[in-house]
Structure formats: structure tokens, C-alpha cells
Design goal:
Helices cover about 70% and strands about 0% of the residues. The chain is an all-alpha fold.
Length: about 200
């Protein structure tokens, strides 16, 4: 005959776990919404270039920063939410080229946009496995920037059927100097943020 032993639970113990899960979910949702809003604001800082259909934009800078500051899952979710917001018609994409919703995603800059979640997740994955100082941050951000550029170039090549040299001149080469500055700025910001935050709280992002 078996005997069951029941231990008294501390007051509120049964509610602690659901409350913690709810808090974690709300916190993650808030980060995703705030991060997608940051990308949207940066996307509207865009300058059209006369020799290429791809404008200069600050949106990739936000992608790099989010990749360095968030976990891979949160980074990918944030940029996925950004793309979903744009696909639903919200004014989150760059104003040039002026195409609404899904049309913008399938336009000349669609490859860059669709590469955002992958780039952000890759940056987060690479950076979190390092000492999280400036040099690893810069290398991780550079890898993500390369993913964005290659995604944009591949998409533009498929749209225009242009030669590789033409696509490189239109979709990659003009953005290399600016991307180098974006990588350095994002790495400096992330390294400074890591130094300011306790190690335990850093791991929670």
C-alpha cells in the first residue's frame, strides 16, 4: 500500500510561475515592438541615389544594433515583426521607392529587407559566443551586414537579370563605405552597453 506525502506550498507559489511567464512574454513583446519601431524610424532616414534603385538608409544600422543587443530568437522575431508590419501596409518601410505593403517587399529593395531577420539572428548568435567587446561586435556586425548586402544583390539580380558586375556596382559597392561606418558605430554602441549592464541582466536580453 503506497503512501502519498504532500508538502504544504508557500503562499502564492502556485501563481508565481504563470506570473513569471506572463511577465517574460510581455517583456519580449515590448522589446519586439520597440525594436521594430526603431527600424521603422531609421528606415525613413533615406536618401535616394540617382545611379541605383536602392537608396541609402539607416535601417541596416538598426538591424546591426538589434542583432548585437538581443538574443538570436528575439532579434529574428523583431525583424520578422517589422516585415509583417510593412506587409500589412503600415508606413514602416523607406519612402523610396514609394511602394506600399507587399509591393515594397517585392520591389528592388526586397532582398535587403527579407535578409534582415537572418542577419540579425546571425549577428546575435556570433556575438553572444564571444567576450562581447568591440572587436567581436564589429566582426559579428560585419557578417550581418554582408548577409544584407548579398541578399539585396541576389534579389536585384533576379529582378533585373543583370550581370554580376552590374549588380555589384548597383547593390553592393556604393554601400560599402557607409556600411563600414554603420558596423563601427553599432559595435561601439553594443560594447559600451555591455560594459554598463551587469552580466546577469545582459544574458536576459
Amino acid at each position: 500500500m503506497s503512501k502519498e506525502v504532500s508538502l504544504p506550498l508557500a503562499p502564492g507559489a502556485g501563481l508565481a510561475a504563470p506570473a513569471a511567464r506572463t511577465y517574460a512574454w510581455m517583456r519580449s513583446a515590448g522589446i519586439v515592438l520597440a525594436g521594430s519601431a526603431l527600424v521603422a524610424v531609421c528606415a525613413h532616414v533615406a536618401v535616394p541615389l540617382f545611379f541605383t534603385p536602392v537608396p541609402l538608409s539607416l535601417a541596416p544600422s538598426a538591424v546591426l544594433v538589434l542583432g548585437l543587443l538581443l538574443t538570436p530568437r528575439l532579434a529574428a522575431a523583431t525583424l520578422g515583426a517589422y516585415l509583417l508590419e510593412g506587409a500589412l501596409g503600415l508606413p514602416v518601410f523607406a519612402p523610396t521607392p514609394a511602394s506600399p505593403g507587399l509591393a515594397h517587399l517585392f520591389g528592388s529593395t526586397g532582398g535587403y529587407l527579407l535578409a534582415y531577420p537572418l542577419a540579425a539572428a546571425l549577428i546575435a548568435l556570433l556575438f553572444r559566443g564571444t567576450g562581447r567587446t568591440f572587436a567581436p561586435a564589429a566582426l559579428s556586425a560585419a557578417a550581418g551586414s554582408l548577409v544584407i548586402l548579398l541578399g539585396g544583390a541576389a534579389w536585384l539580380a533576379a529582378l533585373t537579370h543583370a550581370s554580376l558586375s552590374s549588380v555589384f556596382a548597383l547593390a553592393v559597392l556604393p554601400f560599402l563605405p557607409g556600411d563600414a561606418l554603420k558596423v563601427a558605430a553599432a559595435a561601439a554602441l553594443a560594447a559600451g552597453w555591455v560594459r554598463l549592464r551587469p552580466a546577469q541582466r545582459r544574458q536576459q536580453l
